[in-house]
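Whiteboard transcription, Tuesday session. T.W. wrote the C-alpha cells on the left side:
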C-alpha cells in the first residue's frame, strides 16, 4: 500500500468509527446503496425431492454459493409464493449471523435458487454501487465495526435486515468503485496465492513428521540394519533383532477406582492423553464431568489408555501423570519393562489405525468399539528398550523442529491475512488514492 498516495483533500465523515473520507465521497445509508432481502421462512413440509433448489446456510462457505445439502421446492408453489426470492447471477449472499463470515457470489449453477431463512441476498443499486464494491464493503472492517456496535451490551444472535437498515456504507463515484475493486482483486489474489502456498507447506511438514514417526517406530533409526519379515501383515519388514509380541504379553487390563483429588485426563485422536484436566473449551468433545470422581478409572505413569470408540482413529495415550479417565476408556498396565510412549507412537501410525479398525466391532464408524478382548490379540513390535528411548528422543527433537517451522509459517499466514484485511479497509475508506492504480 505504501506506493499509493492519499487523496488531496479529505472531510470528516460524521461517523466516529470511520473518521475522514475523501472530500468528494459520501457516507450513505446501507439501504440507499444496496438492496437486501432475507430468505423466507419455509416449512419442512414444503420440501420436495426435486424442483427449485432451496439454498441453505451450509452452502455459504467459500467464494461461490453451493447447492450442497440443499432441499427442493415445488416450482408451482414457488411461482405463487416465493418467486421474488429467486437469486440472480449478480447477487451476493451473507449469513444472517451476528458474526459475519464469507460473502458468497451466486454463480450459474445456483442462479434461480431460493435463499433459505438465515441468508441475506445483497444487490448493488444500479448507478449507485457495483457488485464487486458491495462485496468489498461487506468484508471490510467498516462493516464488522458496525456489527460490533449492534452486539455491544446485547445478546444478538441473528443479524437481519433491521440491522442493515441502520448501517452506513462509504460510497465513492462509480468509476472509482471500479478502480478500487480492480486493485483489491489483484492484491488479494496475490496474497491468497501466498497463503495457499504456505498452507501447502504446512501440510507437507505434517506429512513429513508422520512419515518420520512411521519409519522410526517400524524400521528403526539405523538405515543399514538387516531386515526380516515380521510375519505380521501391517508391520511388513522390521529390523532383524526386533521382536513381535501380542498386546496381552505386554499389558494387562486394570480397573482402579478413582480418587477425588486427581485430575480428569482426556484422550485426543490428535495429541494423545493430556497431562492435566482440560477446561470445557479445550476438550475435543463437550462432555460433562461426573461429580463423583470415584466412578472414574485411575491411571498411573506408564499405563496405556484408550478410548474404545475412537481407537480406530488413533485415540490412544501413554500416561505420564497420576490421574483419572472416563469409565468408558480401557486402561492397561505394563507387564514388562518397555516405553509405553513408543507403543502409543506405533499405535497412532496410519497402518496401526487401520489394524485397530479391523479389530473393532460395530455396524457403523460412529458405533465402532475396540474391546480389550480383541485388542489383547493385536501383535505389536518390541524393540530393545534403549532403541525405544532413542526413537522417542529422535521423534521429539525432529517434531520440535517441525513444530517451530509450522508455527513460524502460521504466523506469516496471520500477518498476510491481516494485511489483506487492512488493504481492503484502506481502499474502501479512501485512505489511499487508487484512481490511477495500474
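and on the right, the sequence the group agreed on:
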Amino acid at each position: 500500500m505504501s506506493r499509493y498516495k492519499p487523496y488531496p483533500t479529505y472531510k470528516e465523515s460524521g461517523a466516529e468509527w470511520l473518521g475522514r473520507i475523501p472530500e468528494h465521497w459520501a457516507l450513505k445509508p446501507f439501504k440507499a446503496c444496496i438492496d437486501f432481502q432475507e430468505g423466507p421462512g419455509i416449512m419442512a413440509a414444503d420440501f420436495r425431492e426435486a424442483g427449485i433448489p432451496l439454498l441453505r446456510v451450509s452452502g455459504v462457505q467459500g467464494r461461490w454459493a453451493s447447492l450442497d445439502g440443499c432441499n427442493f421446492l415445488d416450482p408451482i408453489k414457488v411461482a405463487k409464493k416465493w418467486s421474488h426470492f429467486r437469486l440472480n447471477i449478480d447477487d451476493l449472499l451473507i449469513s444472517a449471523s451476528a458474526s459475519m463470515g464469507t460473502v458468497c457470489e451466486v454463480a450459474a449453477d445456483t442462479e434461480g435458487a431460493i435463499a433459505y431463512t438465515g441468508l441475506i441476498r445483497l444487490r448493488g443499486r444500479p448507478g449507485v454501487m457495483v457488485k464487486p464494491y458491495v462485496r468489498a464493503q461487506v468484508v471490510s472492517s467498516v462493516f464488522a465495526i458496525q456489527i460490533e456496535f449492534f452486539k455491544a451490551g446485547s445478546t444478538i444472535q441473528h443479524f437481519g435486515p433491521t440491522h442493515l437498515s441502520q448501517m452506513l456504507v462509504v460510497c465513492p463515484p462509480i468509476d472509482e468503485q471500479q478502480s478500487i475493486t480492480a486493485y483489491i482483486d489483484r492484491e488479494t489474489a496475490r496474497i491468497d496465492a501466498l497463503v495457499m502456498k504456505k498452507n501447502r507447506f504446512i501440510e507437507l511438514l505434517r506429512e513429513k513428521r508422520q512419515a518420520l514417526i512411521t519409519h522410526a517406530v517400524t524400521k528403526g533409526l539405523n538405515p543399514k540394519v538387516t531386515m526380516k519379515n515380521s510375519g505380521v501383515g501391517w508391520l511388513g519388514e522390521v529390523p532383524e533383532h526386533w521382536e513381535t509380541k501380542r498386546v496381552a504379553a505386554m499389558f494387562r487390563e486394570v480397573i482402579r477406582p478413582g480418587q477425588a483429588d486427581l485430575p480428569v485426563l482426556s484422550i485426543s485422536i490428535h495429541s494423545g492423553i493430556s497431562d492435566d484436566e482440560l477446561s470445557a473449551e479445550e476438550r475435543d468433545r463437550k462432555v460433562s464431568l461426573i461429580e463423583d470422581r470415584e466412578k472414574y478409572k485411575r491411571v498411573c505413569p506408564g499405563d496405556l489408555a484408550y478410548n474404545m470408540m475412537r481407537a480406530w482413529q488413533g485415540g490412544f495415550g501413554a500416561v505420564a501423570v497420576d490421574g483419572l479417565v472416563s469409565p468408558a476408556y480401557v486402561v492397561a498396565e505394563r507387564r514388562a519393562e518397555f516405553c509405553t510412549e513408543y507403543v502409543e507412537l506405533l499405535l497412532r501410525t496410519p497402518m496401526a489405525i487401520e489394524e485397530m479398525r479391523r479389530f473393532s466391532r460395530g455396524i457403523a464408524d460412529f458405533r465402532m468399539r475396540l474391546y480389550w478382548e480383541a485388542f489383547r490379540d493385536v501383535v505389536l513390535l518390541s524393540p530393545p528398550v534403549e532403541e525405544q528411548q532413542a526413537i522417542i528422543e529422535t521423534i521429539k527433537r525432529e517434531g520440535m523442529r517441525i513444530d517451530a517451522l509450522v508455527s513460524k509459517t502460521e504466523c506469516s499466514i496471520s500477518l498476510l491475512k491481516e494485511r489483506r484485511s487492512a488493504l481492503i479497509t484502506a481502499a474502501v475508506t479512501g485512505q489511499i488514492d487508487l484512481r490511477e492504480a495500474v
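Someone added at the bottom: Residues 174-219 form the longest helix (46 residues).
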